[in-house]
Amino acid sequence: MSGSQEPRLHVRPRAERTLGDLAGEFSARHGLTPDPWQQLILDDWLAQSKGKWAAMTCGLSVPRQNGKNGVLEMRELFGAVLLGERILHTAHEVKTAQKHFRRLKHFFGDRADDPTARYPKLNALVREVRNVNGQEGIYLTNGGSIEIVARSKGSGRGFTVDVLVMDESQELGDEAQEALMPTTSSAPLGNPQWIYTGTPPGPKVNGEVFTRTRLDALSGKSGRKCWHEWSMEPDASLDDLAAVAVANPALGGRLQVAVLVAERSEMSDDGYGRERGGRWENASSSTVIDPESWGHVRDTSSLVEDRFALAVEVSPDRTTAAVALAGQRADGKWHVELEEQRSGVGWLAPYLIRLVEANPQIRAVVIDGISPAASIIDELTQAKIKVTTTGVREMSAACGQFYDGVMEGWLRHLDQPQLNHALSTARKRPLGDSWAWNRKNSGSDITPLVACTLALWGAQNSTVKKPVRRNGRSSGQRRAVVV
């Protein structure tokens, strides 16, 4: 029985040509001959369009012991030696990073002018081999290099590279990724690439970045991403070896059927499905609302028709503030959007005053009573703008309503980048038996999300205060809110 050489899930951008064949030939000359599935990956990773990598972001999910590290060695050898790329290879664990370094030294030798080097032509390119723990690297005379580090909060500092490899991405959190990404901001060759490789995240690891990369690639909306995934069909039996072969391209070669049978008897169903079947169904993530569910309620043409409400949020350090609008659509569904976001707080009260005075349809201005935004309540009150304040109970209810609106499909949003990013980094904080958005420990600014959550509550709640009391009767004609 042989493993499938084609990934079950495969996304790649359009390209004019590829250097993958050259990379495969170069690797083969140095004892690293790619399997067909590995060659397919090289072809996609090294595809070019208009002189740049067609895929800036590359993701590979394949069960363990199939040969993932071999693909990375091929990519890194080719990039450093023939393209002069500066490459930073990162791994979750120190031992994994050091193992990869030892494999690379197999090709280049232990030092410059190493008479025992297996490949003298490669060794002749070596300027330095750095063996210091935590600072391992191979530096070439053509300017190319391969540096290897174990990830940490500050692991990206001091590096400027063309290619960033994030192996063991099933254990790559937002904080570690954000420390690494600036390493390619000034890529020396002006053609950066990010490579994520690993297995589906387990229940006790932080796999949000890898999960997000996968969902983004499979959504089909990101033009410069490629994704290769070897995995079982979701409804396939774990005892069906033919189904398992779909997820293991090296089966029948470096991976034997007898090993899979033995693993099946020793591992739990979830563990075997994830580690050997490549299944993502139970992938771990602490994201409150998953990207797929958020994507289902996206509607860039959504418009509010009634029950307009505004809400305000200020970041804990008071560096940013956001105003959100919510209301009900003509079809009965509810709508939220980020109306405005700016630096600082000084602009907030005057902006709200003008907005409320110009739009009599606004039924509420909502501010959480324990939020940093509460500091502007007095200024609004002096301007005769009535504010609806929330406490712990109302905030908990608001977060629950927002969550239900997404999961049950009755809420719509405009696919705004600031709100999308806030949702991807937001986490929960407990409030008794319920929860609210965690302002203090969020990985980034979540003011757009908190403001939208409160605005939705204000639009739906029947006890809010009308911001401005107006004399005379309404004409009965509906007027759009000017935002």
List keywords for this structure.
Rossmann fold; Nucleotidyltransferase, domain 5; elongated; 16 helices; 9-stranded mixed β-sheet
In short:
This protein is 33% helix and 20% strand. It has 483 residues and is α/β, with parallel strands linked by helices. Strands 1-12-5-11-10-6-9-8-7 form a nine-stranded mixed beta sheet, with helices on both faces. A six-stranded mixed beta sheet has the order 17-16-13-14-15-18, with helices on both faces.
Q: If you had to describe this structure to a student in words, what would you say it looks like?
A:
This protein is an alpha/beta fold and about 475 residues long. The protein has 2 domains: about 10-275, P-loop containing nucleotide triphosphate hydrolases (Rossmann fold, 3-Layer(aba) Sandwich); about 290-460, Nucleotidyltransferase, domain 5 (2-Layer Sandwich). Helix content is about 35%, strand content about 20%. It has 16 helices and 20 strands. The protein has a 9-stranded mixed sheet with strand order 1-12-5-11-10-6-9-8-7, sandwiched between helices. Helix 1 (about 20-30) crosses helix 3, helix 2 crosses helix 3 (about 70-80) and helix 14 crosses helix 16. The longest helix has 17 residues, at about 390-410. The radius of gyration is 27 Å and the shape is elongated. The termini are far apart. Residues about 470-480 have low confidence and may be disordered.
